[in-house]
């Protein structure tokens, strides 16, 4: 894949994420998609395969009434897109021992996207 096609794929994926369009997100990833979320140095979530990826996406959808990933920058390294992200989300429900419904979270981080056969095959989120 060219860098421009990788960039377009990432932009489509993030647009689907921002609009809670799980079906469109899943359509852009490989069946063996690997997803990881890291907070600091801790791995907080991981999935292997499209079914587990869909489950975590559906769970995340329920947590937020609004959410937006905004691309600050994107660079390419060895076939991977490294995207600097600014994130804003509004909680849809109270989280036990955590934020309350209506509270807003903002953070910055990176998302590393790997590709195979025109699809996203790996996403590593770091914040």
Topology at a glance:
Layout: H1 3-18, H2 22-27, E1 29-39, E2 42-48, H3 50-63, E3 64-77, E4 80-91, E5 104-116, E6 119-126
Parallel strand pairs: 1-6
Antiparallel strand pairs: 1-2, 3-4, 4-5, 5-6
Summarize the structure.
With 127 residues, this protein is an alpha+beta fold. Helices cover 28% and strands 51% of the residues.
Keywords:
127 residues; alpha+beta; Nuclear Transport Factor 2, Chain: A; 6-stranded mixed sheet; 28% helix
Radius of gyration from CA coordinates? 14 Å
CATH architecture label name: Roll
Which structural class best describes the helix and strand composition? alpha+beta
Strand residues, percent = over 45%
Number of helices: 3
Bin the helical content. 25-40%
Nearest-integer average pLDDT: 96
Strand order in the sheet with the most strands? 2-1-6-5-4-3
How would you describe what is shown here?
There is one protein chain. With 127 residues, this protein is of the alpha+beta class. The protein has a single domain (3-126), classed as Nuclear Transport Factor 2, Chain: A (Roll), CATH 3.10.450.50. The protein has 3 helices and 6 strands. The chain has a 6-stranded mixed beta sheet. The longest helix has 16 residues, at 3-18. The chain starts with a helix and ends with a strand.
